[in-house]
UniProtKB/TrEMBL annotation:
Its cofactor is pyridoxal 5'-phosphate. InterPro entries: Aminotrans_3, Aminotrans_3_PPA_site, PyrdxlP-dep_Trfase, PyrdxlP-dep_Trfase_major, PyrdxlP-dep_Trfase_small. It comes from Paralimibaculum aggregatum. It holds the Pfam family Aminotran_3. PANTHER family: AMINOTRANSFERASE, AMINOTRANSFERASE CLASS-III. GO terms for molecular function: transaminase activity. Belongs to the class-III pyridoxal-phosphate-dependent aminotransferase family. This is Aspartate aminotransferase family protein. PROSITE patterns: AA_TRANSFER_CLASS_3. It comes from the Bacteria. Keywords: Aminotransferase, Pyridoxal phosphate, Transferase.
């Protein structure tokens, strides 16, 4: 009864993110009622392993008492303090300091946001101010990768290079440019890591040249692993090679670690494992493990000092009411304690088991590619492995695969082009990882029996 009325209220009033609005009205909402560890339960009592950690964010899992206690304590003590007017709060200051300590290289300065999109927006503002401060405002062109995702704001959606985020929205802007992704499985340069890296380096150099040379280019953005593009993993050394090209041309190198940060790929930050120190880094999601909204932009000493000195005694006019929100920051501190207290280690163990188990699914007739790192992985499904033929649109991969998994008791991400994404909470037990794998195999078998798939094989 409860869920029926919620379905009607939802249909009438709640606009859902990145959804077919009409499709959602027809399908109706599924309401998640509670979560515990890596498991969620819907309002009908159906229990599911959350193989996607909400939206790749609940890294610590649900129901972590230490986080609840930290948030409650902070709500009672001081639910809000502004960072304007030279004011601050203890949790925001302590979290900034701990993050600076944990971040690679000299990313020692932290600006807090509400999530990933406004973190990316903040970097765009900081990049522009940096070049203004250096007396080079003509460095105003931005480059990203095809298949990249950098948020859903008007600026970020233009840096994002997924068609659904552009169509009808009047983006990308004319200062936002793209080069091809390193996507190994479907790369025209082939699957050889050195060839892929060489192709990306050449593409970046060519794009910079086409834009009028380095003197016109402000920044280059990368996700260490492209998440929303379908978990696309660059070859080892790729990021370092791209970073080196940017350093040579003095183009700011921005790592968007909104998904990859906070243990998702193993270490606290994915850049570190590649030995790369970006000029700026964006994070969100695992920062608070989804227990409250928060993002963070990390600025290197050089970027920070240039902007600070450029403004002198003048104001750097960028701010948010909820920047450094004390409750989110208290949660961030509690989550960091969990990461350092064994969660990262558990995630690394569970990630190795997940990747090995997914590799073992490569024998399935539909699995064309298995990729990922740590607790971030994907299967790319095809109807012909040699020709790498994508699943037919008639088989509605996004909805049917998601529905099959749901019925099996598993939440996963089903991309419309036939990619299945996994990003389980780092607290997963071995049994939960095995549960994800067994249910995934069942989903693959059911998908193989889909008449629309059969017809395409
Ligand atoms: N950057 C990346 C790499 C992301 O994956 C996301 C969200 N999935 C964002 C930015 C935007 O974050 P948010 O949804 O918190 O605004």
């Amino acid at each position: 009864m409860l869920s029926n009325s919620l379905v009607e209220l939802d249909r009438a009033h709640l606009v859902h993110p990145v959804a077919s609005w009409r499709g959602h009205e027809a399908a109706g909402v599924r309401v998640i009622a509670s979560g515990d560890g890596a498991t969620v339960t819907d309002t009908s009592g159906h229990r599911l392993i959350d193989g996607f950690a909400g939206l790749w964010c609940v890294n610590a899992g649900y129901g972590q008492e230490s986080i609840v206690e930290a948030a409650t304590r902070q709500l009672r003590t001081l639910p809000y303090a502004t960072g304007y007017f030279g004011l601050g709060s203890e949790p925001a200051i302590r979290l900034a300091a701990r993050l600076a300590e944990a971040a690679p290289g000299d990313l020692d300065h932290v600006f807090f946001t509400l999530g990933g999109s406004d973190a990316v927006d903040s970097t765009v503002r900081f990049v522009r101010h940096y070049w203004h401060s250096r007396g080079k405002p003509e460095r105003d062109q931005f480059i990203t990768l095809e298949m990249g995702y950098h948020g859903s704001s008007t600026v970020g959606a233009g840096l994002t290079a997924l068609p659904a985020f552009h169509t009808g929205f009047g983006v990308p802007h004319d200062w936002q440019h793209r080069i091809p992704s390193h996507h190994a499985y479907r790369n025209p340069a082939g699957q050889d890591p050195a060839a892929i890296t060489a192709a990306s380096v050449a593409a970046l150099r060519a794009k910079v040249k086409a834009l009028g040379g380095p003197e016109r280019v402000a920044a280059f953005y990368v996700e260490p692993i492209q998440g929303s593009g379908g978990v696309l993993v660059p070859p080892p050394g790729w990021m370092a090679a791209m970073r080196a090209v940017c350093a040579e041309m003095e183009i700011l190198f921005i790592a968007d670690e909104v998904i990859t940060g906070f243990g998702r790929t193993g270490p606290l930050f994915a850049c570190a494992e590649e030995g790369v120190v970006p000029d700026m880094m964006t994070t969100a999601k695992g920062l608070t493990s989804g227990y409250a909204p928060m993002g963070a932009v990390f600025l290197s000493e050089h970027v920070y000092a240039t902007i600070a000195d450029g403004a002198g005694q003048g104001v750097v006019g960028h701010g948010l009411t909820y920047s450094g929100h004390p409750v989110s920051a208290a949660i961030g501190l509690a989550v960091l304690d969990l990461y350092e207290g064994g969660l990262l280690e558990n995630g690394r163990r569970a990630g190795a088991r997940l990747m090995a188990g997914l590799q073992a699914l490569a024998d399935h007739p539909l699995v064309g590619d298995v990729r990922g790192r740590g607790m971030l992985a994907a299967l790319e499904l095809v109807t012909d492995k040699a020709a790498k033929t994508p699943l037919p649109a008639a088989a509605q991969p996004a909805t049917r695969i998601f529905d099959r998994a749901w019925a099996q008791g598993l939440v996963l991400r089903a991309f419309p082009w036939g990619v299945i994404g996994f990003a389980p909470p780092l607290c997963c037990t071995e049994a939960e990882i095995d549960g994800i794998l067994a249910r995934t195999r069942a989903v693959l078998d059911e998908t193989l029996d889909d008449p629309d798939i059969r017809a395409a094989m």
